Amino acid sequence: MKVLVINAGSSSLKYQLIDMADETVLAKGNAERIGIDNSVLSHTPAGKEKVEIRTDIKDHVQAVRMVIDALVHPEYGVIKDMSEISAVGHRVVHGGEKFSGSVVIDDDVMEAIRANSELAPLHNPANITGIEACKSVMPNTPMVAVFDTAFHQTMPRESYIYAIPYSAYEKYGIRRYGFHGTSHKYVSLKAAKLMGRPIEELKIVTCHLGNGSSITAVKNGKSVDTSMGFTPLEGLPMGTRCGTIDPAIIMFLMEKENMTYQQINHYLNKESGVLGISGVSSDFRDLEAAAREGNERAKLALDIFAYSIKKYIGAYAAAMGGLDCVVFTAGIGENNPYIRQKACEGLEFLGIKIDEEKNQRMVGRMGREGEISTTDSKVKVLVVPTNEELMIARETVELVG
Predict the structure, then answer these.
(1) CA dist., res. 20 & res. 257, Å (int)
(2) Residues 240, 136: one domain?
(3) 208 is in an annotated binding site
(4) Residue 168 buriedness (CB in 10 A; 0-12 / 13-18 / 19+)
(5) Is 335 one of the annotated binding-site residues?
(6) Is 303 a catalytic residue?
(7) Is residue 183, in this structure, part of any structural domain at all?
């Protein structure tokens, strides 16, 4: 069974075609600058060179047609015809409270995704566009929606209700939703497999650390708390997002700087985080380079980020009543030994001990998992590359296979 995984953005469409018989990626690519000048489709078939197709891509329907054409192309294609695609799995950012798992897409599901667009105005409309484009090109192919928020729907009420008037939750759905759920689910399952233990008996903290970052407490295979909240702005300081701050700062800044809602929203989402602290960059590689050259604010940004991770690990160990494993994943989690070491430093009382040599040895091992804790560490510390596309494909097969 071959599954096409689609992740549609407002002007992009990322894809992977996965053969679920052995879970190998047959091809992957990205249609960029859809509806904009200089659009391009980058297509990489397994074992072959990347192909770039430069032509005007007026909309997502054309992008999907180009993806199919690339997949069946006699030179760089990987299948004979469209009929080999058994199903399409779509990443959808926000499912609200409606969906606690993945679902086969029908008219009612589409209506619910549209209704949740108010909660994810930058993402859900783009996801809807991708689904509709695929349906127009492949009307008879089953489609599945896999929600970033679904994994976190197992959180208890004390984890997701905010201490504001309860009517705000009842009227507007204001609560903690959490994001990166597909990634947190994938790496927690992978960690259990690497440990050789059932996930139903494990207490795991998963750290998805990238330009957007979140941490999740996974108890017995279920999310019981997560750092992102009503929006992805809450939690850790990130590349350009402020993370958790005193809410009064917002009103204070709006008054002092005479900011509009749009301006403060941009300030907190695009000008803050490690970029705002360092004044250098939102890219952690740039920050490390600057820190090595003696830039104190760049080093401060790195240390604040690592300190925040440490606080969440400790808090979630307390929330779960123990800890068996910490998992680092995503761009920073997989590739930054300094952040991993600093985040675990001082947590020996929880049973966490990092092996510095193992930690450094993970550098350059892109796409490979490994243990970085010492042999006598009571808590396993793992680096596990995330694979959201494979998780989406698995969920799709489970529903339509």
Answers:
(1) 54
(2) no
(3) yes
(4) middle
(5) yes
(6) no
(7) no
Residues 235 and 120 in one domain: no
User: Quick one: 25 and 126 in the same domain?
Assistant: yes
The answer on whether 333 is annotated among ligand-binding residues is yes
What pLDDT digit, counting tens, does each position of 293-351 carry? Answer: 999 999 999 999 999 999 999 999 999 999 999 999 998 999 999 999 999 999 999 99
Task: Judge whether 334 is annotated as a binding position.
Answer: yes
User: CATH number of the domain that 64 lies in?
Assistant: 3.30.420.40
**Is 243 assigned a ligand-binding role in the annotation?**
no
Range(s) of the domain holding residue 314: 197-386
209 in a known ligand binding site: yes
pLDDT tens digits for 111-147? 999 988 888 777 888 889 889 989 988 999 999 999 9
Q: Which of 59, 81, 108, 148 is catalytic?
A: 148
Q: Quick check: 396 and 87 in contact, CB under 8 A?
A: yes
Answering whether pTM is above 0.85, one says: yes
| Counted domains in the chain | 2
